[in-house]
Amino acid sequence: MGHTPEPIPVLALWSAPRSRSTAFARMMAERDDRVVVHEPFSQVVDFGEVKVGGQLAHSEAGVLEVLRAIAAESPVFFKDTTDFHYPTVLADRDFLASATHTFIIRHPAEAIASHRALAPELGRDEIGFARLYELFAAVQAATGATPVVIDSDDLLDRPAQTVRAYCEAVGIPFLPEALSWEPGMRSEWQATSRWHASTSRTAGFQRAGDGDATAERARALEAVEADPVLRAHHDHHLPYYEKLRAAALRP
Q: In sequence order, what DSSP letters do the residues of 4-15 get, joined into one string?
C-alpha cells in the first residue's frame, strides 16, 4: 500500500481565467478565518516572484514551500488560474493528495469573450480549460476521489445554496454574512488590477450588465462563433468544460 499523506489545512480553488474565481476568493477573504493567498502560481510564472503571506517565492517549488509553512501555523485558502501550466504542482503528489483542491467553471464561450476583451492576442492554451481538467484529473488520481467543482452560474443564480454546498463538501462552516462585502480594489489584486476591476465594483455575487444569463451566453457564443480562431479555441476547450460540469455540485 502507498503512503497516504496527512491532510494539510490548505484549501485551493483552481479556475480557467475569467471564470469568477476572484469573486469567490473575495468571499473567502470576508470570512476572515484563514490566510487568503491570491494567484501565487500564476504570478510567480508571470513575474518571476510573488509575495505569499509576507514571504517572497521565486518558483513553483518556492510557492509550495511557503504555502506549507503558512499552513503549519494557520489554515490557508488560495485561488489560482490555469492560463499557465504548473508542472511542479502536477508532479507533487503529496500536495495534490494532502491539500483540498476544488474547481470553479464558467462556460468557455463566456470566459473566452471576457478574456479576449482584456487580451486581444489570446492564445488557445492560456484559455485554460484543458489545463484545468489536467489538474482535476491529477487530484482525482492522487486522492481516489472526485474533487469538488462548482459552476459559477450556480454561484450567481443561487449564491447561498451554492456556497453552503461547497462548504459542506470541503468541511468548513457556512458563513452567510460573507456573501456580501464592501466594494473596492484589494491590495493583493494590485499587480494584476485590470483583471479584477469588475470584481472590485461588486458587493456580492452578481451578474454584470443587465443580469440576464441567457442573453449573456448568447452574446458570448455569437462573438466566439463569428471569429474562426476563437471558434476553434472554443471547440478545443468545450469537452474539458463538459467533463468538469458533469462533476459539479448541484446546489
A: PPPP-SEEEEEE
